[in-house]
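pinned: reference chain
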Amino acid sequence: MAEKKKTTVSIFGTEYVMVSEKSEEYIYNLAAKVDEVMIEVAKSNSRYSQTMVAVLAALNLADSLQKSQEELAETAEKLENIQGEMQRPFEELNELRQELEAIKEQYTKMQSEYTKSQIELGKVSREWAKAQEELKDLRCELDVSKETINDVQNKLFESQIELLKAKKELDDAKIKRIDKNRNIR
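pinned: its structure tokens
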């Protein structure tokens, strides 16, 4: 607790001793304000007694105090409104951060699925390449088989021709023999 001090001030021509924990400068400033208001009130009507001047000065100071308190209340309300308005962007920022986290999670999940798809695609591509190689080999085998079939068909055709020739020769030989046997008889 601060020590109380005595300070002598002059208000409207009268000296007063003030006892306070406040600084001398603070007490002098208060006294100067009261003195200033009393001098202004006295200037407005010279017929006022010192008591009337003091009461009117007190009313003026009370009015100033009331106005200051109202302004302070308005300012406090405005400050509260401003703080409320300032809070909204922070709330929106938090909502956006939550949305961003959800998007990051979704991105991570999609990235994982994409990686799995890429791996599957790689497997399918390898299987496709293997199937293409097998198809190529099968086509080669088919071509060889076609050639073999053509060769076999050609040999069969040639064999059939030779068979027909042989049949004709046999038939001719039979006819010659029959004719020979007829002639011998």
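why pinned: Residues 1-48 form one domain. The chain has a mean pLDDT of 93.
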